[in-house]
Design a protein that fits this description.
By secondary structure, the chain is of the alpha/beta class. 23% of the residues lie in helices and 40% in strands. It is built from three helices and eight strands. The strands form two sheets. Strands 1, 2, 3, 6, 7 and 8 form a six-stranded mixed sheet that branches. The protein has a two-stranded antiparallel ribbon with strand order 4-5. Helix 1 packs across helix 3. The chain is globular and about 45 Å long.
C-alpha cells in the first residue's frame, strides 16, 4: 500500500463539476493499493499517517500531529501510484490491485481513520476526479507499507 501525503491548508475533490469532498487545514492522502495488500497494511498505514508529526509548532519545527492541530484528512484513491514507467513511454499498471480488492481496502482505510475520530472526506473510487489543493510548505511524503508488518 502506498500513500502520498501532502500537508495542505485546503483541498477539495470534484466529480462531474460538483465538490464531493473538501477540507481546510490537514492532510491530502492519495492512496494506492497493490495485489498483496491486506487489512494489516490498512491498519499500519492509517496509524502511521495519523501519528505523523509534520505540522509546525510555535517555533516553526515540524513537531505537531494532525490531532494537535485538529486537522482533517481528504482521501483520494489513485491506482496510478503503482504505475511502472521504467520501460517505454506508456506506464504499466499491472502492480495496481484489481478494482474490487482496491475499493474494499480503500473503504477500510477510510473507516480506520474515522475510528481515530478524525474528520475524513473522500473522493469517489473509480471516478474521474479533479483534485485541488494548496500544499503547505510544501510538505509531501511518500509512504510505502513495509513488507513484513507484525
Amino acid at each position: 500500500m502506498r500513500g502520498v501525503v501532502q500537508r495542505v491548508t485546503k483541498a477539495s475533490v470534484t466529480v462531474d463539476g460538483k465538490i464531493i469532498g473538501k477540507i481546510e487545514k490537514g492532510l491530502l492522502v492519495l492512496l494506492g493499493v497493490t495485489h498483496n495488500d491486506s487489512e494489516k497494511e490498512v491498519k499500519w498505514l492509517s496509524k502511521k499517517i495519523k501519528d505523523l508529526r509534520i505540522f509546525e509548532d510555535e517555533d516553526g519545527k515540524m513537531n505537531l500531529g494532525l490531532e494537535d492541530i485538529k486537522g482533517d484528512i481528504l482521501v483520494v484513491s489513485q491506482f496510478t501510484l503503482y504505475g511502472d514507467c521504467i520501460k517505454g513511454r506508456r506506464p504499466s499498471f499491472i502492480e495496481a490491485a484489481k478494482p474490487g480488492m482496491a475499493n474494499k481496502l480503500y473503504e477500510k482505510f477510510i473507516e480506520e481513520l474515522k475510528n481515530y475520530n478524525i474528520k475524513v472526506e473522500t473522493g469517489e473510487f473509480g471516478a474521474d476526479m479533479k483534485v485541488e489543493l494548496l500544499n503547505d510548505g510544501p510538505v509531501t511524503l511518500v509512504i510505502d507499507t513495509p513488507e513484513n508488518i507484525k
